[in-house]
């Protein structure tokens, strides 16, 4: 067998895999992964605002539902609702209230 054919096969395979990964990356950057067309949901009422790792298993998650924010601790032996009374405020109103 000719080693040139093997080399051509592997280079073509690497090129095709690279095209697939670049198309997936481009689709993710353009927002196609959370499109209402794909998810079927046009009116999003729930949104994950922030995620912080506590340790290898546990995470703190800030979730916004309608006009309320909920702070959750997930992972470990059980999931906990830390705070559910956090109302959504704009950053401008918070900075105005803190300045005396």
What does this structure look like?
InterPro entries: FliO/MopB. This is FliO/MopB family protein. Keywords: Membrane, Transmembrane, Transmembrane helix. The chain is an alpha+beta fold. The chain has two domains: 40 residues; 46 residues. It is 39% helix and 30% strand. A hairpin with a 5-residue loop joins strand 3 and strand 4. The chain is elongated, with a radius of gyration of 23 Å.
Give a summary of the structure in a few sentences.
This protein is α+β, with helices and mostly antiparallel strands and 100 residues long. Helix content is 39%, strand content 30%. The longest helix has 27 residues, at 3-29.
Strands of the widest sheet, in order across it, are 1-2-3-4
For the biggest sheet, the summary is: 4 strands, antiparallel
Question: What oligomeric state do the depicted chains represent?
Answer: single chain
Helices, by number, come to: 3
End-to-end distance: 82 Å
Order of helices and strands: HHEEEEH
Approximate shape: elongated
Q: Could you tell me the strand content as a percent range? A: 25-35%
- Helix/strand-derived category reads alpha+beta
Gyration radius, rounded: 23 Å
- Taking pLDDT < 50 over at least 5 consecutive residues as the criterion, the unreliable ranges are none
Mean pLDDT metric = 81
**How many distinct domains?**
2
Overall number of strands: 4
Helical fraction equals 25-40%
């Amino acid at each position: 067998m000719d080693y040139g054919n093997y080399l051509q096969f592997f280079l073509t395979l690497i090129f095709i895999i690279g095209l697939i990964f670049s198309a997936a990356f481009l689709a993710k950057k353009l927002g196609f992964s959370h499109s209402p067309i794909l998810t079927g949901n046009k009116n999003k009422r729930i949104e994950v605002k922030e995620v912080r790792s506590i340790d290898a298993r546990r995470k703190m998650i800030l979730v916004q539902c309608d006009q309320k924010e909920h702070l959750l601790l997930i992972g470990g032996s059980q999931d906990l609702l830390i705070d559910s009374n956090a109302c959504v405020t704009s950053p401008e109103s918070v900075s105005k209230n803190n300045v005396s």
